[in-house]
Amino acid sequence: MTGESGQSGQTGQTGYDDALARLVTPPAVPIDARGDWDAAESAVGVRLPDDYKRMVATYGWGEFCDFLYLRTPFGTSEYNGIEWQRTYPPGSPDPDTECYPYPLHPAPGGLLIWGTTMNADRLCWLTGGEPEEWPVVVWSSEGWYETHRTGAAGFIGGWAAGRIRSGLLGTMEPDLAPWFNTFRPRVDRCLRLSEGPLPHDERLRLLRAALAPTTDRGTWRSEHDEMGQDHFATVDTDWLLTYEAPRPHRIRIGFPPEDSEHVRRRLFAAAELMECQVLEVLTAAGTPLAAWDAVTDEDE
Question: What is the domain class of 185-299 according to CATH?
Answer without folding.
Answer: alpha beta
